[in-house]
């Protein structure tokens, strides 16, 4: 479940609040290493690294956050600030322009920063429901979040994981396909899509998807375990 990730992120935010940036980085890197990172994780990791003077690494994290949420206002601003500090003024100005553009009214009628904030609040409520075991209500909150931020890949991926947990594998397939349409190299989402195919009765499709995952990220222990499972069943 995603709830443990939220708890670790909360601890990281507490460390950040007391200016323990090394502690913040340590906690956030654990989330990233577990393949559970979403845009907020990468953004906070980038800010912490920038405050530690590790600007190149910070830029990598801001870029990862923006891959998941291209209209992430704070990530665009912090990216621009770091670029400006590095003397890369043209790139910094481009980042600031993108930040300004993200404030334009979104398709749902809210300014983008407000829509993003509301979407994140729905996501937080979704995690609370998930932790309480109310998976259907959690999915409903993610659906509301995605109405406000349809390009928020991290939220769609987290919703898909809950759909899998609640046995709604066909809906999970649709959600994961949309995630991969936006971010084709999201290997964890690809692995989850294979699992959704398997759980919905398409073992051969799952095998093809998992083999494709290994071609992009060899020695992926999770995917290797899935394929071994298929081998034991003779698929």
What does it look like?
- The mean pLDDT is 87.
- The longest helix is centred in the middle third of the chain and has 20 residues, at 112-131.
- This protein has 13 helices and no strands.
- The protein is globular, with a radius of gyration of 19 Å.
- The chain is an all-alpha fold.
- α2 runs antiparallel to α3 and α9 (153-165) packs parallel to α11.
- It has helices at residues 3-17, 21-33, 39-51, 55-68, 73-85, 89-101, 112-131, 135-148, 153-165, 169-182, 187-199, 203-216, 221-232.
- The chain folds into 2 domains: 3-101, Serine Threonine Protein Phosphatase 5, Tetratricopeptide repeat; 169-235, Alpha Horseshoe (Serine Threonine Protein Phosphatase 5, Tetratricopeptide repeat).
- The two termini are 28 Å apart.
């Amino acid at each position: 479940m995603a709830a443990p990730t939220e708890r670790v992120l909360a601890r990281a935010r507490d460390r950040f609040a007391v200016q323990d940036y090394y502690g913040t980085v340590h906690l956030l890197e654990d989330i990233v290493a577990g393949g559970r990172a979403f845009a907020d994780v990468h953004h906070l990791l980038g800010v912490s690294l920038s405050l530690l003077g590790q600007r190149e690494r910070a830029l990598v994290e801001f870029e990862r956050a923006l891959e998941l949420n291209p209209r992430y206002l704070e990530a665009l601003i912090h990216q621009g600030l770091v670029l400006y500090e590095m003397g890369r003024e043209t790139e910094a100005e481009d980042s600031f322009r993108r930040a300004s553009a993200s404030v334009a009214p979104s398709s749902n009628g809210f300014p983008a920063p407000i829509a993003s904030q509301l979407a994140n609040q729905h996501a937080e409520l979704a995690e609370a429901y998930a932790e309480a075991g109310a998976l259907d209500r959690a999915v409903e909150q993610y659906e509301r979040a995605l109405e406000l931020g349809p390009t928020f890949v991290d939220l769609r991926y987290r919703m898909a994981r809950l759909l899998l947990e609640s046995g709604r594998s066909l809906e999970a397939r649709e959600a994961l396909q949309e995630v991969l349409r936006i971010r084709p190299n999201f290997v964890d989402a690809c692995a989850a899509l294979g699992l959704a195919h398997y759980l919905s009765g398409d073992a051969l499709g799952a095998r093809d998807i998992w083999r494709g995952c290994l071609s992009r990220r060899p020695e992926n222990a999770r995917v290797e375990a899935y394929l071994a499972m298929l081998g034991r069943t003779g698929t």
